[in-house]
Known about the structure:
Number of strands: 13
Strand content: 25-35%
Number of helices: 7
Radius of gyration: 22 Å
Largest sheet: 7 strands, mixed
Strand order of the largest sheet: 4-5-2-1-9-12-11
Order of helices and strands: HEEEEEEEEHHHHHHEEEEE
Structural class: alpha+beta
Helix content: 25-40%
Shape: globular
Distance between the termini: 48 Å
Amino acid sequence: MRALKAAGLLGLACFVxxxxxxxxxxxxxxxxxxxxxxxxxxxxxxxxxxEAPGPSDFIKxxxxxxxxxxxxxxxxxxxxxRREIAAGSGDVLDYELVDGEGHKxxxxxxxxKEGSRITYTETYVWDxxxxxxxxxxxxxxxLDDALKPFSASADQTNKLKExxxxxxxxxxxxxxxxxxxxxxxxxxxxxxxxxxxxxxxMMEVLTEEFPDSPRSQRLEAVRSFFKGLLESEGWNEGxxxxxxxxxxxxGEEGDSSPMMSILSAVSGPGTLVEHNxxxxxxxxxxxxxxxxxxxMWEPVVLRAVYELD
Length: 309
């Protein structure tokens, strides 16, 4: 279920085992100390589902100092942990998420105070097998053809392929504004956003690697590559969602893991001077949204910097 074709099974997965939502809120004071709240919630299963998983099956709070509580809020099971992290603690293991299929996502938080500036980061690292399915994996020949006018080296070609894959993955799973869920409701729009993100990334690498080439030549390479990719069997099988209400095909097993979304928000003292998320002027917070799969290919680092007044 970790391939892009998982979009077609999102609705089925949520129906079978529920969609788990992880939310964290971080408050930083002027010393660099942190108040941290982490919660996981998911729909309560029918009484007949005696062995249905709960939030504690998908999260493990790491380290000391946690105070936890469990409850039921309007049909949603919820596990919440709270703790304080002293200033100067360095890298602190915070929590890990598991999906029941041998994958983990491990979160580490770090707060560094240097003079009047406080830098806060959350780092998410993938632990477990990586998805071997890639909608661009059959595109080597297409990319070779698109790059012929540039006489690209093998290293340059591989760099392009990796950048395109990462750009598509980030657009799907975040952080920022992941479109994974919206692929179900509007697959045409979702697929277009994916190719637009991949095309922009490809154009950036072409401009960096071949700055003396005409822009029109770079544009033609991008457009010819994605035209072929969109017509390829691997792309159409991987991105186009299936009917989420349909039962698994003969010989296939239904998915046993929930879809897990992650929402993180942070507020700090003084003036926010730098961040890589989205700023909420109403709550005065920086926030990030992503799915469990986001750090599969490379760590995800969320960052916010505050200047003390």
